[in-house]
């Protein structure tokens, strides 16, 4: 593992050693650990707009944005003001506060197929609850998920999951009894006939199909033409619940998420990331008929001590209001700048003779060190992760912070500038030379 770098790293290294003595791997979420790319993880002390600073005072252009939430950049003034104002009135009551309906109104306004929404504290809770609800509603046991899709770390969903599970090469996870995943059918993504076959084999037994409508957790992999429509038709015919996991794509690929972008109505939608404005929030929602099965109205139990937390609701409201009021400006700009960046880097790879393909939907994207095309987990997993590691480390030395894994989407936000993009392309030119060495 080459630890030669032109950056100062003493402070981050010291902080990592301190953390490692108390926290497994020194991290509270595995993909932060740089295990698949080598080198030492950064300790971040500050962020503003599209830039972050580490404990050694290095400055980076940030393309992680907290793994998606920070579409308006770090320390955005309106979000900060909202959090401070809410905090001054108390941080949590375990009772209802007015801001919960404010955020619900904003979410339902953006997602017209949802009539009711329940807030939780993470994307994991959102998908876990949506699946429980789909099972309660259909009175069926089986669920269909797709290889390389990540829906949080609930037991039944850690089967051929993407994100850190893919990065670390963990087959599912230890500690999950096989009985807990016996009703989970993990099928290849972008292949309708295997889904059709599953519905035949498990006739009237499949409660739901859960999908990332644009996958972000095996790197960015869009659905093929008609794939999502096909899933919609199949689930409708089989009276199975279609769940769009829009934890990443909601308010990202368009204001109304992937369902607006592709004009498809799922039954249930899960959200997280952007709707919390950088604080912990998740949500699941859908038509009244299904949502009214949730306790206290119905028999499906789901609860949370800090759910609907006033600080998190305030941050989410401040974020979504800006996205709503400026969507005509923000989303077209994200599209244009992301296109420039992704294609600029791809052109640099071509010039350097480095095999690379790219996938992008709006401001989420991945450069795969792979001839391509990447359309599912099998094709994604053929990527040259060693080359990615070299690329990643060189970019970091040039002041560009990318996700420390080939199998995680990168994000551009409204705070990124033309200058950021040009500097990133210049850094990539240098990085591809390092890859060839
Ligand atoms: C991030 C993510 C989750 C999990 O959300 P957490 O807040 O990390 O629990 C679930 N689904 C998708 C699609 C995600 O990107």
Description:
With 437 residues, the chain is α/β, with parallel strands linked by helices. It has two domains: 10-63 and 327-436, Aspartate Aminotransferase, domain 1, CATH 3.90.1150.10; 77-325, Type I PLP-dependent aspartate aminotransferase-like (Major domain) (Aspartate Aminotransferase, domain 2). It is 38% helix and 15% strand. α2 packs antiparallel against α10 (310-325), α6 (192-201) packs parallel to α7 (227-237) and α11 runs parallel beside α14 (418-436). The longest helix has 26 residues, at 327-352. It is globular, with a radius of gyration of 21 Å. The protein starts with 9 loop residues before the first helix and ends with a helix. Pyridoxal-5'-phosphate (PLP) binds next to α4.
């Amino acid at each position: 593992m080459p630890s030669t770098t032109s950056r100062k790293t003493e402070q981050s290294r010291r902080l990592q050693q301190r953390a490692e003595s108390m926290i497994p791997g020194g991290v509270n979420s595995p993909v932060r650990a740089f295990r698949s790319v080598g080198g030492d993880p950064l300790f971040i002390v500050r962020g503003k707009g599209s830039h972050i600073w580490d404990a050694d005072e290095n400055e980076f252009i940030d393309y992680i944005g907290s793994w998606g939430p920070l579409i308006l950049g770090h320390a955005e003034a309106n979000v900060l003001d909202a959090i401070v104002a809410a905090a001054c009135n108390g941080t949590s009551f375990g009772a209802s506060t007015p801001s919960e309906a404010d955020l619900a109104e904003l979410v339902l306004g953006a997602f017209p197929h949802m009539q009711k929404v329940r807030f939780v504290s993470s994307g994991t809770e959102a998908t876990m609850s949506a699946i429980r609800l789909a099972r309660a509603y259909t009175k069926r046991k089986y669920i269909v998920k797709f290889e390389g899709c990540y829906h949080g770390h609930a037991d039944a969903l850690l089967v051929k999951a993407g994100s850190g599970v893919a990065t670390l090469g963990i087959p599912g996870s230890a500690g999950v009894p096989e009985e807990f995943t016996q009703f989970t059918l993990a099928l290849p993504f972008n292949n309708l006939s295997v889904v059709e076959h599953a519905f035949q084999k498990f006739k009237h037994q499949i409660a739901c199909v859960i999908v990332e409508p644009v996958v972000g957790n095996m790197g960015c992999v869009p659905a093929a033409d008609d794939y999502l429509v096909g899933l919609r038709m199949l689930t409708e015919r089989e009276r199975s619940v279609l769940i769009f996991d829009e934890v990443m794509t909601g308010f990202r690929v368009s204001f109304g998420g992937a369902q607006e972008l592709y004009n498809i109505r799922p039954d249930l939608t899960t959200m997280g990331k952007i709707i919390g404005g950088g604080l912990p929030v998740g949500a699941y929602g859908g038509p009244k008929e299904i949502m009214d099965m949730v306790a206290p109205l119905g028999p499906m139990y789901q609860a949370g001590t800090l759910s609907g937390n006033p600080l998190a609701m305030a941050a989410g409201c401040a974020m979504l209001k800006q996205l709503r009021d400026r969507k005509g400006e923000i989303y077209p700009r994200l599209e244009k700048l992301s296109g420039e960046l992704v294609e600029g880097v791809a052109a640099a790879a071509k010039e350097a003779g480095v095999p690379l393909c790219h996938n992008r939907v709006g401001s989420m994207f991945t450069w795969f060190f792979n001839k391509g095309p990447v359309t599912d987990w099998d094709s994604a997993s053929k990527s040259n992760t060693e080359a990615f590691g070299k690329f990643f480390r060189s970019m970091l030395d040039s002041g560009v912070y990318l996700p420390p894994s080939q199998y995680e989407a990168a994000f551009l936000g409204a705070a990124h500038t033309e200058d950021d993009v040009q500097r990133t392309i210049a850094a990539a030119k240098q990085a591809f030379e390092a890859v060839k060495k």
